[in-house]
Write a structure and sequence with these properties.
Elements: H1 2-7, H2 18-25, E1 30-35, H3 42-55, E2 60-64, H4 65-69, H5 80-99, E3 103-107, H6 113-122, E4 128-134, H7 137-143, H8 148-153, E5 175-178, H9 184-197
Parallel strand pairs: 1-3, 1-4, 2-3, 4-5
Helix pairs in contact: 3-9, 5-6
Length: 201
C-alpha cells in the first residue's frame, strides 16, 4: 500500500527557482550546520551569526534543536534511531529553506557523522557548511546551562551525548570554531568571514 501511494506522488517544480530567489536577495543560500556537544555554544553562536546576517540585510533563519523538538519532532525521543530521524527531518526542512533563498543556521548536537553526511548529500555542493563548534567536554560540563550534565552523571538521563552516548567529531568540517578559546563575537565573525570568502554573502 505504501509503495502504491509513493508511485502517485509527483515532484512539482516551482515557478520561481532557487536561483531567482537568490538573485532577488542578492546572496546565495546554504545550510550552516552547527554541530558539537551540549553546552558547546551551538545555539548561542547560531543566533549571533543570524544577528550579524540580519544587520547586513541577509535573509536567514535559525533552526534550533530544542525548539524543533517542541513541534515538528515532538514525538521523537533520544534513542539512536530517533536521533537519526530527527536529523533527517531537519535536513529536509533546511533543504527547503535553501530553495527559498535563505541561509539556514541549524543548531543540533547531531552526534553521528553518517547522519550529517546524509544531509550533505541531499543538497548541492557548497550548500552544506559543517561548522564544528569545538569545546572541551570539561568546559561544556562546567557551563552546563541546562543542568543536563549533572543529571546525566547522576544517571537521570540515559543516552546523553558525551557521557553515556558517543559524539563523533567531524572528519573534515568546513569550519572549526573553538568556543572555549574565542568570544561569541569573534566566533560569529569567523563564520561570516567564511561566507564572504566563499562569495555566499
Amino acid at each position: 500500500m505504501a509503495n502504491q501511494i509513493n508511485e502517485n506522488i509527483v515532484w512539482h517544480d516551482t515557478t520561481i527557482s532557487k536561483q531567482d530567489r537568490q538573485k532577488k536577495n542578492n546572496h546565495k543560500s546554504c545550510i550552516l550546520w552547527f554541530t558539537g556537544l551540549s553546552g558547546a555554544g551551538k545555539s548561542t553562536l547560531a543566533n549571533a551569526v543570524e544577528k550579524k546576517l540580519y544587520e547586513n540585510h541577509i535573509h536567514s533563519y535559525v533552526l534550533d534543536g530544542d525548539n524543533v523538538r517542541h513541534g515538528l519532532n515532538k514525538g521523537l525521543g533520544f534513542s539512536d534511531e530517533d536521533r537519526k530521524e530527527n536529523i533527517r527531518r531537519i535536513g529536509e526542512v533546511a533543504k527547503l529553506f535553501i530553495d527559498a533563498g535563505v541561509i539556514t543556521c541549524t543548531a543540533f548536537i547531531s552526534p553521528f557523522r553518517e547522519d550529517r553526511d546524509k544531509v550533505r548529500e541531499i543538497v548541492e555542493e557548497g550548500e552544506f557548511i559543517e561548522v564544528y563548534v569545538k569545546c572541551s567536554l570539561e568546559t561544556c560540563e562546567q557551563r552546563d546551562p541546562k543542568g543536563l550534565y549533572k543529571k546525566a552523571r547522576a544517571g537521570e538521563i540515559p543516552e546523553f551525548t558525551g557521557i553515556s552516548s558517543p559524539y563523533e567529531e567531524p572528519n573534515a568540517p568546513e569550519l572549526i570554531v573553538e568556543t572555549d578559546k574565542l568570544s561569541i563575537e569573534e566566533a560569529a565573525d569567523q563564520v561570516l568571514l567564511y561566507l564572504q570568502a566563499k562569495a555566499i554573502i
